[in-house]
Amino acid sequence: MFVCLGNICRSPMAEAVFRHLVKQKGLGDKIFADSCGTARYHIDKPPHEGTRAILNLHGISYAGIKASQLEKRHLSEFDGIVAMDSENLSDILRIKNKNSTAWVKLLSDFSKGNWRDVPDPYYTGDFELTYKLITEGCEMLLEHIRNTSSF
Ligand code: 4NP
């Protein structure tokens, strides 16, 4: 489960990119990805036009993706929760309780690059940089899952 603040820019981009990579590796029936936001401002909205534009440019589908809010149950329904930035991470950790079985990490924890937070293009306007970091992080996340799973 990819998590950002509004679930219209970064985490839906990560969901679409990750699904694309999963499909390319033929693991579409093994790995399920979703995304949500810590805030409820944009529930049911499609991804931001900047996110749609960069995904279109790279031929990556975002069909069916619409915004939803993080719920406590996600921390036991998903194997892992991937936060886009440090604020998202602390918001997720705040709702974690003894029933939460999922691991919780930053996307950059999987990257070898020298960055920590995925910059929020809602404010920066730089969807290119966000796409670049998300792609690198998602490639490494998938690599990690493949190295630590039985498939
Ligand atoms: P996201 O970006 O967390 O990457 O989806 C944002 C989208 C909307 C808002 C903030 C961040 N907002 O305040 O409406």
Protein topology:
Elements lengths: L1 E3 L5 H15 L10 E3 L11 H9 L16 H4 L2 E4 L2 H10 L7 E4 L14 H4 L2 H22 L3
Parallel strand pairs: 1-2, 1-3, 3-4
Helix pairs in contact: 1-6
The structure holds 4-nitrophenyl phosphate (4NP).
The site of 4-nitrophenyl phosphate has 11 residues, from loops.
The fraction of residues assigned to DSSP E strands is 5-15%
What's the N-to-C terminus distance?
Answer: 19 Å
Q: Which structural category do the helix and sheet elements fall into?
A: alpha/beta
Query: How is the biggest beta sheet arranged?
Result: 4 strands, parallel
Number of DSSP strands? Answer: 4
Low-confidence stretches: none
Q: Work out the radius of gyration.
A: 14 Å
Report mean pLDDT, rounded to a whole number: 98
Bound compounds, each kind once, are:
4-nitrophenyl phosphate
The portion of residues assigned to helices is: 40-55%
Which geometry do the CA atoms define?
A: globular
Q: Number of helical segments? A: 6
Task: Write down the secondary-structure element order.
Answer: EHEHHEHEHH
Oligomeric state of this protein = single chain
Kindly report the spatial arrangement of strands forming the biggest sheet. Answer: 2-1-3-4
Could you give a short description of this structure?
The protein is an alpha/beta fold and 151 residues long. Helix content is 42%, strand content 9%. The structure holds 4-nitrophenyl phosphate.
